[in-house]
Write a structure and sequence with these properties.
11 helices; Rossmann fold; rod-shaped; single chain; disordered N terminus; alpha+beta; 415 residues; 6-stranded antiparallel beta sheet
């Protein structure tokens, strides 16, 4: 009588594995059952394939040892049905046979058998097969547990991503709400704003606000980091640092260079943040057409005259929040009837073609000339479309713009 050592089979686990013995010979089943029980396994028995299938459905054995030759359903057919019923876990299948032909072995493997034992069964060989089954089942269980943990982790990540997407949508709505108006008309001047973030939320912000009965303030900024300056310039009059109350109790605006200097000191000395931003701030007198402007590291505004000529405005300037004692130069412009000033972020001029060539100022000027007859939103949309077409539909950075247009006189057509 063969003997199995439970210390060497590796089957004496906390939860003993269940072995299903399938053989029409009761004596053969009992012989194997005794040895398996001594080795630390739980054993159930079946005399035929149909009974074995019922036990598989009810008990879900870890290991099946089945005779090949049985009345009715053969061990080969039973093996095929056993494989078909498995879904979430693996069962190890050993065929008992007196056959040793290679064609028979190949047929058994195709049916789903993992191992073969030749009758009469050798104790040493059975021990080896069981050791192999323990390794395979152990690896399968480890993989199944890892997959379960991975699925649970992915589920949590999906929940986190969904929450993050909701937060980003809320942040986007908040950012968009900072731009309270997209259009404005002040005397002979039409103001139009554009904001196209590359993602959920962007670092660009544009806006305008009335100063008094004849002046309006306009700004365009591109923040590297968080939008610290957004609320400082787009909030109500009590929070807008550009505004001040005169001795007569009326609102007025500080000079543009002073505003940029104050923002720079606030960023460096009080907020002490790593964020900085580039900016253009303008103070427009919409009765006279005079405009005072400061450029702080932002792309150069483009002034398109009524005859179509384009002038580059500004000397560059320093970003806000980088240098403690930065000074900002104020420029003075006069916008005549038919003139317009276009201020945009670098997301427009840095749009790249599929070959990696940036659009640049020359490309922007060409777009402005091509679209000289368009105004307001139509012009802004056409500029965006042209930039997207140039970049092959790819947009890597936010695009924002402020458009200031003075209405044309009937005798001043575009050139």
């Amino acid at each position: 009588m063969m003997t199995l050592d439970p210390q060497t089979t590796g089957s004496a686990t906390q939860v003993p594995r269940l072995v299903l013995l399938v053989d029409d010979s009761r004596a053969q089943r009992r012989t194997l059952a005794v040895q398996l029980t001594r080795a630390g396994y739980h054993v159930v028995e079946a005399a035929a394939g149909d009974e074995a299938m019922r036990l598989c459905l009810e008990r879900r054995p870890d290991i099946v040892i089945s005779d090949w030759m049985m009345p009715g359903q053969s061990g080969l057919d039973f093996c095929r049905r056993f494989r078909e019923m498995q879904s979430d876990r693996y069962g190890y299948f050993i065929l008992l046979t007196s056959r040793n032909d290679k064609k028979d072995i190949a047929e058994g493997l195709r049916a789903g058998a993992d191992e073969f034992l030749t009758k009469p069964v050798s104790g040493a060989e059975l021990l080896a097969r069981l050791s192999a089954s323990e390794r395979i089942l152990g690896m399968e269980e480890s993989l199944r547990n890892a997959n379960a943990q991975l699925s649970a982790t992915l589920g949590r990540l999906r929940e986190t991503q969904a929450a993050l997407d909701r937060d980003l949508r809320e942040a986007q709505r908040l950012q968009q709400s900072l731009v309270r108006e997209r259009h404005g008309r002040y005397g002979e001047f039409d103001l139009s704003l554009l904001m196209r973030p590359a993602g959920h939320i962007g670092g660009d912000l544009v806006g305008f606000f009335p100063i008094n009965a004849r002046r309006v303030g306009l700004f365009a900024l591109d923040v590297a980091g968080h939008g610290v300056a957004a609320a400082l310039l787009s909030g109500g009059t009590d929070q807008n640092i550009a505004l001040q109350i005169t001795e007569l109790g009326l609102y007025d605006a500080r000079p543009p260079a002073e505003i940029l200097g104050q923002l720079n000191r606030l960023m460096i000395e009080e907020l002490r943040t790593d964020a900085y931003f580039t900016m253009v701030y303008a103070d427009l007198d919409f009765l006279s057409g005079q405009l005072r402007l400061v450029q702080a590291g932002h792309p150069h505004p483009m002034l398109q005259r009524a005859d179509g000529r384009i002038e580059r405005v500004g000397q560059g300037g320093l970003p806000v929040g980088v240098f403690p004692h930065a000074e900002y130069e104020e420029l003075h412009l006069a916008l005549a009837p038919g003139d317009r000033l276009f201020i945009s972020s670098d997301g427009l001029t840095e749009s790249e073609s599929p070959r990696g060539q940036p659009l640049g100022e020359e490309g922007l000027n060409a777009i402005l000339r091509t679209n000289a007859t368009l105004r307001g939103d139509a012009l802004l949309e056409s500029i965006c479309w042209s930039a997207a077409h140039y970049a092959g539909g790819e947009r890597k950075d936010d695009i924002s713009a402020v458009l200031i247009e003075r209405q044309k006189m009937a005798e001043a057509p575009w050139g």
